[in-house]
Amino acid sequence: MLPEGFDRETYIAGLREKHGRILPQDIAFSVENGWLPLIAESLQQIEEALDRHGWIGRATIRQIKEKLGDLRIYVRSRRESYHFSKALADDLAVIRDRYLSTSIKTCEICGDAGELGNFDGYYQTLCRHHADQRRAWIAGGRKGDTFND
What's the CA gap between 42 and 39, in Å, rounded? Predict the structure, then answer.
């Protein structure tokens, strides 16, 4: 559960400041608030892995998004000619898999325990409350804001 008075923009600004070595200032956070703490943990581990392998300044976060109901954070080298070592690629894969697995058990909206569901062809990980809201929104003709009306 997100804390009372949670402010998305302040939280993201803090992540941009803390992880400025790997996180471009213009990167979009294309997820709902419930996954922001997962992103914070993941960025910390990604930055540590890049630092451990001497890749700070040579790699960056390229994209943060939801895809097919799970969290995706893409890390790429800054130049096409740079290639991750097998050890670094393996470390990044472990981090990616850990947070993908966690995201499909965490409501993207509120951060509570959730479950990956298919909502009329759209996959999203939601808690029971937000899943019910999405179903009602679909049944009501998809009018208004899914979670805030």
Answer: 5
Q: Tell whether pTM > 0.70.
A: yes
Question: How far apart are alpha carbons 123 and 33 in whole angstroms?
Answer: 17
Torsion region of 116: left, alpha or beta (phi above 0 gives left; psi -120 to 50 gives alpha): beta
d(CA 145, CA 27): 25
| 3-class state of residue 52 by DSSP | helix
Other residues' Cβ atoms within 10 Å of the Cβ of residue 131: 18
**Each residue of 36-94: pLDDT tens digit?**
999 999 999 999 999 999 999 999 999 999 999 999 999 999 888 788 999 999 999 99
Q: What are phi and psi of 146, to 5 degrees?
A: -50, -50
